[in-house]
Amino acid sequence: MNDRVYVGNAGKDAALDRGWLLGHFKDVDDPRHSKDVEIKWGVHPPGDERAQWVEGEARTALLVLISGRFHVQLPGRTVVLEQQGDYVVWGRGVDHSWFAEEESVVLTVRWPSLPGYAVPRPETPSRI
Fold it and tell me: What is the pLDDT of residues 75-111, one digit of tens each?
């Protein structure tokens, strides 16, 4: 076993970490740890949307549609990805959000990999 090699399945591994397969947030001993790039396999049910806009973006991003119909919201326009392979790229300083019109799978690549962009998870009510 080579601890510098990881073999997995995007669908299964994505379910473990909000869709993220590679980036600064993986353990430093994990071959998927990177400060240079982040990769996400996003599986979105119909109506799924980002909880809040990303503002003050300091990364460049590429989003590629694998399946479905997916809206990327940018200042002053919305890009609709509707055919497999449709993609959009935006650079630093471009705020954004997204919305899944129908069940969609998208591959996102962002660089560099920087902390501070995750939307906080909703609090789970305590059970008594």
Answer: 999 999 999 999 999 999 999 999 999 999 999 999 9
Chain centre to alpha carbon of residue 31: 19
User: Does the global pTM surpass 0.70?
Assistant: yes
Which strands, in side-by-side order, build the sheet including 60-67?
A: 20-22, 38-44, 104-111, 60-67, 87-90
Question: Of 11, 116, 115, which Cα lies nearest the Cα of 66?
Answer: 11
Question: Alpha-carbon distance 85 to 13, whole Å?
Answer: 22
Q: Which CATH number fits domain 10-111: 1.20.58.1560, 3.90.660.10, 2.60.40.10, 2.60.120.10?
A: 2.60.120.10
Q: Which residues pair with 79 in a beta bridge?
A: 72
